[in-house]
């Protein structure tokens, strides 16, 4: 397999894995819809996912990388739908709204800052750093209920499909970032 074929293979498999990872949130949302309540499930993983995919979508356009654009277009759409599901079924709607507004502010400020940068490399670096920070939050977000798990001695509130899918997908994007020589994707 030549290097270009390998790059395409990793791009395709990483894209599929990522979309499957994003779709794993539907399991949580179906459970919420069936129960007609979010219970003690945090909306933060979904709100941070919406922010993360929106920022990475912009980064994809910035570096003109189709795989990043495709995956994050799907991701931003799904996570927005998940946030709406949380808003519908949450008894703490103000918390969901506050988290979402906060993420929208971060997104808007970041995009405005990057848009007005004259130096492409500087703008890319700034956006890449913000994407990485938000991605760390996104991957750590399912653990937001970790203290609750310890307190009640039950793992019911942990979204295991999202946690497992995140690990597999991370490894694929690490390889793809190495191939592209893009430290932010890595």
From TrEMBL:
It is a multi-pass membrane protein. Its main location: membrane. One of its GO terms (cellular component) is Golgi membrane. GO terms for molecular function: sugar transmembrane transporter activity. It is found in: Cell membrane; Golgi apparatus membrane. The chain crosses the membrane at residues 68-91, 97-114, 126-150, 162-180. Keywords: Cell membrane, Golgi apparatus, Membrane, Repeat, Sugar transport, Transmembrane, Transmembrane helix, Transport. Mediates both low-affinity uptake and efflux of sugar across the membrane. Belongs to the SWEET sugar transporter family. PANTHER family: RAG1-ACTIVATING PROTEIN 1, SUGAR TRANSPORTER SWEET1. This is Sugar transporter SWEET1.
């Amino acid at each position: 397999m030549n290097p270009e074929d390998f790059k395409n293979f990793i791009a395709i498999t990483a894209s599929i894995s990522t979309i499957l990872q994003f779709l794993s949130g539907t399991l949580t949302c179906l459970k919420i819809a069936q129960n007609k309540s979010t219970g003690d499930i945090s909306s933060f993983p979904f709100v941070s996912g919406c922010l993360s995919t929106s920022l990475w979508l912009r980064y994809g356009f910035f570096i003109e990388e189709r795989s990043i654009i495709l995956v994050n277009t799907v991701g931003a759409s799904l996570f927005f739908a998940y946030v709406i599901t949380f808003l519908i079924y949450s008894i703490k709607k103000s918390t969901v709204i506050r988290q979402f507004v906060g993420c929208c502010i971060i997104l808007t400020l970041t995009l405005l800052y990057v848009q007005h940068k004259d130096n492409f490399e500087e703008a890319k670096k700034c956006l890449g750093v913000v994407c990485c920070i938000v991605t760390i939050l996104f991957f750590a977000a399912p653990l937001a209920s970790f203290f609750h798990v310890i307190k009640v001695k039950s793992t019911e509130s942990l979204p295991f499909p999202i946690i497992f899918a995140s690990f597999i997908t991370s490894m694929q994007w690490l390889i793809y970032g190495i191939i592209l020589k893009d430290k932010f994707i890595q």
